[in-house]
């Protein structure tokens, strides 16, 4: 009897040890997930419409173009921090600025080309990394000052940018593609102002009123009538979008919600997996939001 019990105990002990050993093997543990693209490809699309006009849209706290400059500074700092966190041989990152339509001012076009930065192991010097943020701040300030001085605001064709340019200019394989849009949320350009049924390539305060989206039942009307932007034939599943600077007409208490609903519906239909839409605010309040969005993996 004692011999039988001893054999049984030894058998159970062997099974226990075998099981523990099998569980602890690395191949049986769940693999940790990681973000595929450690290289950043950051694009900034600037709306140079009359939203930045000091005459049409004055702001006693801080001019809207100055807020944009603060947001761009935060973006360039986050980009630089990312570069400094990588080993030299791993660096292969880009940051660039776009406008649509492109400004007629040759100076702005020249500056924007200089702000298309590609950093890799061959040019990633300490001096370059330390100069990116200051260079972006100085050069983008020249862009805004030139546009304001010119005082010829022809509109913002953000819809066309998504339709014809974003896939080619802002998306690269094996990179984390981030598009940051500086806009008040309104989209209008006369050259591509199209309506198809209840959909359009633009959104203005006038359109919101015409669609009856200035009352408490705006959400039901929007759903029942399928109001929204015309969906471009693009798949943007490899793009992340951060929209900054939403500044609705306060004469309509529902305007902000309608603008954000238009953008949300549009980005979702284009299969953008990660996006945020934020109101205009002081750069100091937006810094962490921008930093967190860019740093998120």
From TrEMBL:
<keyword id="KW-0732">Signal</keyword>
<protein>
    <recommendedName>
        <fullName>VWFA domain-containing protein</fullName>
    </recommendedName>
</protein>
<feature type="signal peptide">
    <location>
        <begin position="1"/>
        <end position="21"/>
    </location>
</feature>
């Amino acid at each position: 009897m004692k011999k039988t019990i001893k054999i049984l105990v030894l058998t159970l002990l062997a099974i226990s040890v075998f099981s523990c050993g099998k569980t602890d093997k690395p191949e049986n543990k769940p693999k940790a997930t990681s973000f595929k693209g450690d290289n950043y490809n950051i694009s900034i699309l600037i709306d140079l419409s009359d939203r930045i006009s000091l005459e049409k849209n004055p702001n006693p706290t801080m001019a809207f173009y100055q807020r944009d400059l603060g947001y761009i500074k935060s973006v360039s700092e986050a980009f630089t921090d990312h570069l400094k966190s990588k080993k030299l041989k791993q660096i292969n990152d880009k940051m660039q600025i776009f406008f649509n339509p492109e400004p007629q001012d040759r100076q702005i076009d020249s500056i924007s080309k200089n702000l298309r930065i590609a950093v890799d192991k061959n040019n990633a010097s300490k001096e370059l990394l330390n100069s990116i943020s200051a260079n972006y701040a100085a050069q983008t300030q020249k862009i805004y000052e030139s546009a304001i001085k010119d005082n010829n605001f022809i509109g913002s064709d953000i819809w066309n940018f998504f339709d014809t340019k974003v896939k080619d200019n802002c998306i690269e394989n094996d990179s984390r593609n981030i598009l940051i849009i500086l806009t008040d949320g309104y989209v209008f350009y006369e050259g591509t102002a199209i309506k198809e049924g209840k959909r359009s390539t633009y959104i203005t305060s006038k359109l919101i009123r015409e669609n009856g989206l200035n009352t408490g039942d705006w959400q039901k009307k929007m759903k029942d009538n399928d109001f929204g932007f015309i969906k471009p034939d693009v798949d943007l599943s490899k793009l992340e979008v951060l929209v900054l600077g939403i500044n609705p007409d306060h004469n309509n208490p529902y305007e902000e919600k309608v603008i954000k609903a238009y953008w949300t519906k549009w980005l979702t239909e284009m299969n953008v997996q990660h996006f945020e839409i934020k109101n205009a605010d002081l750069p100091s309040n937006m810094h962490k939001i921008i930093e967190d969005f860019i740093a998120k993996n």
